[in-house]
Amino acid sequence: MKTFADFKIDLGSRTGIEVAALCPQCEGTRKKKHVKCLSVNTEKGVWVCHHCDWRGTLKGGEDAPARKSYVRPTWVKPAPPDVTLANWFAHRGINEDIVAEEEITIVQKYLAQTEDIVPCLAFPFKKNGEVVNVKYRGVDTKAFQQVSGAEKILYRQDSIAKDMVFVVEGEIDALSVRMAGFDSVVSVPDGAPAVNTKDFTAKFTYLDQDPDPFDSVEKIVLAVDNDPPGKKLLEELARRLGRERCWTVQWPEGCKDANDVLCTHGAEVLQTCLLEAAPWPVEDVVTVLDLAEDIRRIAQSGLPRGLSTGWPSLDMVFTIAPGQLTVVTGIPSHGKSQFVDALAVNLMQTHGWRFVICSPENYPTSLHAVTLMEKWTAKTVRMDAPFQEASMLTPAEIDGALTEMYQYFKFIAPEDSMTIDDLLERCTVLVRTWGIQGLIIDPWNEFDHTRPRGMSEVEYINEKLGAVRRWARKWSVHVFIVAHPTKMQKKEDGTYPIPTPYDISGGAAWRNKSENCITIWRNISPGITTVEIHVQKVRWRNLGIMGESISLNFNRWTGRYL
Question: Which domains are present in the chain?
Answer without folding.
Answer: 4-62 (no CATH), 83-279 (3.40.1360.10), 312-561 (3.40.50.300)
